[in-house]
Amino acid sequence: MHLQVDTVSKRCYNPLVRVIDTVSTKALNENGKIDYHVFKPVLFEFPTYEYFVTGEKAGDCAKMNK
Question: pLDDT digit string (tens) for 5-63?
Fold first, then answer.
């Protein structure tokens, strides 16, 4: 994935990035948007130096109170 750094926080290194290009289109839906059921991004937590895998659906906002 090709990312472009837009801004970096002055307090700590927390870059805000924009997706420029992807190597694979397998994680894109028919509208060209990222399908998070397929693409499971890895998050990095700086204070603990730990990586976390995302991608599991936690709920459906439209059906939470039904």
Answer: 777 666 666 677 777 776 677 888 899 888 888 888 888 888 899 999 887 888 888 87
Closest Cα partner for 34 from 50, 18, 51?
A: 18
Q: Is 20 helix (H, G, I), strand (E, B) or coil?
A: strand
The model carries a pTM of 0.47
Domain ranges of the chain: 2-58
Q: Output phi, psi for 36, to 5 deg.
A: -75, -5
CB 6 within 8 Å of CB 18: yes
The Cα diameter of the chain in Å comes to 43
Ramachandran region of residue 31, left (φ > 0), alpha (ψ -120 to 50) or beta?
Answer: alpha
